[in-house]
Structure formats: C-alpha cells, structure tokens
Amino acid sequence: MSQDSISLTLEPREVTGKQVKHLRKAGTVPAVIHDHGRTSVIVQGNYAAVFKVWQQAGKHHPVDVKAGDKSFTALIKSAEFDPKKHQLAHIVFNAVNVNEEVEAEIPIHPRFDEGNEATPAERAGLLVLSQLEAVLVKATPRNLPDALYYDAEKLVEIGDHATVGDLLVPEGVSIETDLKHTIATVFEPGAMQAANEAAGGTVEEEVPEEVATEEEAEPDQDTAPEETK
Q1: pLDDT-derived band of residue 15, with 50, 70 and 90 as boundaries?
Q2: Is 90 exceeded by the pLDDT of residue 191?
Q3: pLDDT at 3
Q4: What is the distance of C-alpha 37 from the center of its chain?
Q5: End-to-end CA gap in the chain
Q6: Which residues, 6 or more positions from 77, have their beta carbon under 8 angstroms from its beta carbon?
Q7: Which residue ranges form the domains of the chain, and what is each CATH number?
Q8: Strand 38-46 relative to strand 28-35: parallel, antiparallel, unpaired?
Q9: Across the chain, where does the E strand assignment appear?
Q10: Could you tell me the sign of the dihedral formed by the alpha carbons of 18, 19, 22, 28, in that order?
Q11: Helices (H), strands (E): how many in the chain?
C-alpha cells in the first residue's frame, strides 16, 4: 500500500496562458488543482520540489497538497514536459476524497525468488517479452499500491505467459483491467528475430502512448482550457 506520505506546498498563481513561460524561466512550475467540480485552484511551485513529488508519486500515490490556506489530498492527473529541454513544464492534480474509491494506473513488476534477477526462461536463454506495463485499479487513495507484482518464476518454457489475473492483489484493491490481458510471454529468440526480419524490422516492444503524448506536448500553449475544467 501507499504508506509513505508525500507532501507538497504550492503558492497561488495569477499568471496564466502563454505568460507562464516566464515562470518556467524563473524555476517555477505552473500547476492546477481540480477540486470535485468546484472552481479549479491555479497554483505554482518550486521546480525541484514539484519534480521530486512527480517522481515519487507518479499517478497512483496520494499527495498532501497545501495551496495557500487550502489543503487537499490529490493524485497527479497529468504532467507535460518541454520536448526540447525535457523538463517538467506543467502539472495537473485531481483532489480526491480519502474515503471514496478512485481509479489509478498502477505499474506492474515481476517478482523473483530470493537470489534471482531473471525468470527461469531467461536463465535458460529464452526471451521474455513484456506486453503490459500498468493496470487500472480501484481503491481508496490510501489503499492504492505503489506497484503490483506477478510470480515471474512461472515463466519457464516457450509459450508460458502471465496475465493480469496472475497479479498478487492486496485487500481493498480491485482490478479494472481485463484479467485475461497478457502481461508477459516467453518466446524463442530465433523466432522473434525471424519475425522481426520478415516484418522489415518493425516488430518491437511498444512504447506506451502516454509517455509519447507527454513528451510531445507543447508547454508554451495556453493552459487556460485545462485549468478551468
């Protein structure tokens, strides 16, 4: 579960639209907090502090946000990055009720037996292809896990696979993603190479669409539409 508390102090912001580029140059990140249908809270914060929270919380760990005289428990909804400087340019928080269930994307990781750092298949020279990086879950904010794990020791022979249904799910957490969705599959390396060559070298692991979207976002665009939702 998300036991560690993450806190962030933000300040009210008067600058909006394209003028926020001046804030960025001064080492400040423009941000917004959506508050259950109420008027959005327009804020800003020190770059180092905001970026650290983004790294720690991702989109699944609740953040205790203090903005002026208001306090929120919030999840990060989205983050935009400057495509040239690769720096955090804008961040959006969603305020949540600590007693109500929310949906969040939780990263998936393999779990190995003690002393192992690879699956039995990989130790035998086979290839394990990851096909899913995260799943959608529902839980109260404090019950959201930082990650979900599956038993990677079951991946032994060609064709073996793990599905969402194999995830070890803690109490109080429900999985919204199709339980039959494949997480990882064992392949014979030569077969993958042949398939790649037959397809003209285009068979490769997919890059999550979300990452591409964030990195390609234009940080100097008018942020008003997003901030007033």
Answers
A1: confident
A2: no
A3: 58
A4: 23
A5: 30
A6: 34, 59, 92, 93, 94
A7: 7-96 (2.40.240.10), 102-198 (2.170.120.20)
A8: antiparallel
A9: 7-12, 28-35, 38-46, 63-67, 70-81, 88-95, 102-111, 127-130, 134-139, 148-151, 161-163, 167-168, 174-175, 182-187
A10: negative
A11: 6, 14
Residues 6+ apart with CB under 8 A from 34: 40, 77, 92, 93, 94, 95, 229
What are φ and ψ of residue 54, in 5° steps?
A: -60, -45
The two structure tokens encoding residue 12: 């009210």
pTM for this predicted structure: 0.73
- Assigned token pair, 178: 């199709």
Contacts of 181 (CB under 8 A, 6+ apart): 132, 135, 163, 164
Tokens 């300040």 locate to: 11
What is the token pair recorded at 145?
């896990």
Mean pLDDT of 185-200: 75
pLDDT digits (tens, 9 = 90+) for 97-133: 999 999 999 999 999 999 999 999 999 999 999 999 9
Residue 21 tokens read as 């580029």
